[in-house]
Write a structure and sequence with these properties.
mainly alpha; 2 domains; 76% helix; elongated; transmembrane helix; transmembrane; NEMP1 protein
């Protein structure tokens, strides 16, 4: 009885693979799919479980995550501090060229040409 069921299962699988082959327009793609299906069906379960164990990713707990985040932040800030301080000690400006140019273009130390005192006087005398 078992042999009959196995023959029926293999026959149904063969019909399914025939449908896969005839159902696509690219024979190379069909054969690739069939080959992958046959290989996948014949991989031992022990091998699949062994690969799953090897690829299992360990997740961090909330406490480990916070500890790692604090350590990485501290390390990155220390590296940044050393980098910036080293540039400043070597004589570099603490401002970039773009910041200096932007400041120079926005701030003007020239006073207006007209005398605003006369305007203020005329305003005061007209209100009294």
């Amino acid at each position: 009885m078992r042999e009959v069921l196995d023959l029926m299962k293999w026959g149904i699988q063969l019909i399914g693979l025939t449908f896969v082959y005839n159902g696509t327009q690219l024979p190379a793609a069909s054969l690739t799919l069939i080959l992958l299906a046959v290989l996948w069906a014949n991989i031992p379960e022990r091998l699949v479980q062994a690969v799953k164990v090897l690829l299992k990713i360990r997740r961090l707990t909330q406490e480990e995550y916070e500890q790692q985040a604090a350590e990485e932040t501290r390390r990155a800030l220390e590296q940044l501090r050393q980098f910036l301080f080293a540039k400043f000690v070597e004589g570099d400006s603490h401002l970039s060229e773009d910041e200096v140019c932007a400041y120079d273009s926005e701030v003007s130390f020239e006073f207006p040409a007209e005398d605003s005192f006369e305007e203020d006087e005329s305003f005061v005398t007209s209100n009294t």
